[in-house]
Amino acid sequence: MLLPGSAHPHPPRSPAELADWLGVETAEVARWIADGLPSESAGIDAFAAVNWLSDRLDLAPVLRSRWQRFLGFFAPFVAGEDRTTVRRISRGHRLFVPHEPTTVRWWLPRIDQAEDEQWSVTAAATSTHVKVYGTEVDGTAIVRSRPERRAAPELLPLVEEVIEGFTYGYRHHRPDDTYHGRTSGSCLDLTFAVGERLTAAGRPWRLCSGVIAHTALANPHFWLEVETARGIWITIDPSLPALAKRFAALHRTDWRVWARAYTGGCDARRITLCRGEAPLRDIPGGATIGSTIGEAIVDGDNAWSCLDWVCGECRWEFERA
User: pTM for the whole thing?
Assistant: First the structure.
């Protein structure tokens, strides 16, 4: 695996850099550190800062606004107001690698909702500066996404119980990660936590991956589908209820309303890229969970496109078609 190393786009930040990113004074960050914000000699990890501030959003108005906007994007589905949407989308990449590449090969997954179920890639332009390799792939597709609403009252207690015992937050994913038994982490970790409970209950399920369908909010996202006794696959997305629970002060609905909406339901505000096992084979270093989002091979090594929203390696643009 070819990891970013010193080319990582978000290395530990100084208090001044973190203050600039979050729109506060440097002295405020110093107070946070004194109050327990995790920091090391190398600086402050962005994920650790976001997780610590998630329980103190009154201290960081910019971060609070970001979370309000994110939850507000999904509120129409919870309120029963989501509608089928047709979008024209394009996708590009920025890879952060420790040397200038000689060759790069891209795998872009098919799109379930696309009319032709695949990208139309017509051109690619590349540029390199410092240790950032940027590739803008002219890949476009027309996608129709529909909301789904199926009541699943028998599964709701299980989903709520997992969310109750789970701390939602961000962490740095790596190809050799294990997701078994985690009680904290991101959407991928929470999805596996629910999946483990379903497996224990004898319920077949499969991992789903995609991206949030908004240019400013686009980031990789994971959820799952579970098979019913009638052979129908229904959606469970525990992450949106978990976020509603964590940021209850930002909206007026009980997070359990979100749990009901997303246990058996799915909004039209995401693009589905993969259901079940990653379809790629013979990837140098082996296919990863990242294969469900896309892979990049740099000079014969798997560069493992990052799953973390902070790194911003996936660039998506959406417009109504």
Answer: 0.89
